[in-house]
Design a protein that fits this description.
Layout: H1 4-7, H2 21-30, E1 39-46, E2 58-62, E3 73-76, H3 82-87, E4 92-94, H4 96-103, E5 111-114, H5 119-122, H6 126-129, H7 147-157, E6 158-162, E7 168-175, H8 180-197, E8 207-214, E9 220-221
């Protein structure tokens, strides 16, 4: 059974011509009829199938306006770096004891940061962390000696961009309560990074289609301001 709230939403929005994010934000926000502060979400489908290879995209974006939610960050590091991690705002930090907790399946964090020397010990937990997308990665800035800076970036609203096997990339650019200006700043930050990280193997446009919606809303075709 669909709720009255859902039935009141616009129908057949995918038949509406694509518009820029500047024009669509007001419409998307208008559809946020839930009692909570809904996220404003974007989905890209990228061109992963090439003639000679299959491409993938994985990177991070530092959102200038943040995500509008608290991120629980854990840090696996040497004993002498625990204070640095805590001072930067880490929710959990430790060395062997924390690794042991994680090995038992006790995962009460959303991002894990690790120092390079501790990755040897953490590597054995790939089966625990991998499926949850929590294994630290040097390319994503989560394997680093500068744990303080990494924690601050994660807390400030660092977004991981990664496509699935079908080429879909879904991400939030903030909350309904954000101003349009701040949502657009976050969106443009993502576009800038994807443009820079476009795999060299891609021939033609990387992004095939794009949509914008809210957590409990309906999606609209999103027109990119430039081809990527």
């Amino acid at each position: 059974m669909r709720s009255k709230r859902y039935k009141a939403l616009p129908k057949e929005t995918k038949k509406i011509p694509a518009e820029s994010i500047e024009k669509l934000l007001a419409t998307v926000k208008k559809n946020c009829s839930s009692k909570f502060d809904e996220s404003i979400d974007v989905n890209f489908q990228i061109n992963v199938k090439q003639k000679k290879t299959e491409v993938s995209l994985r990177t991070v974006v530092n959102l200038p306006s943040g995500l509008g939610k608290k991120i629980k960050v854990a840090v696996v590091c040497e004993e002498d770096k625990i204070k640095e991690a805590n001072d930067a705002g880490a929710d959990l930090s430790g060395s062997d004891t924390l690794i042991e907790e994680i090995s038992t399946g006790k995962i009460n964090f959303e991002k894990l940061i690790c120092t390079p020397s501790m990755m040897i010990k953490l590597g054995k937990l790939g089966k625990v962390l991998g499926p949850k997308g929590l294994m630290p990665n040097p390319k994503l800035g989560t394997v680093t000696k500068d744990v303080g800076q990494a924690v601050k970036l994660a807390k400030a609203g660092q977004l991981e961009i990664k496509n699935d096997k079908d080429g879909n990339i879904g991400f939030s650019i903030g909350k309904k309560s954000f101003s349009d200006e701040n949502l657009i700043k976050n969106y443009n930050a993502v576009i800038d990074v994807i443009t820079k990280e476009k795999p060299s193997a891609v021939k033609g446009d990387l992004i095939k289609s794009s949509f914008i919606t809210s957590t409990m809303g309906v999606s609209y075709k999103l027109k990119l301001n430039k081809a990527i």
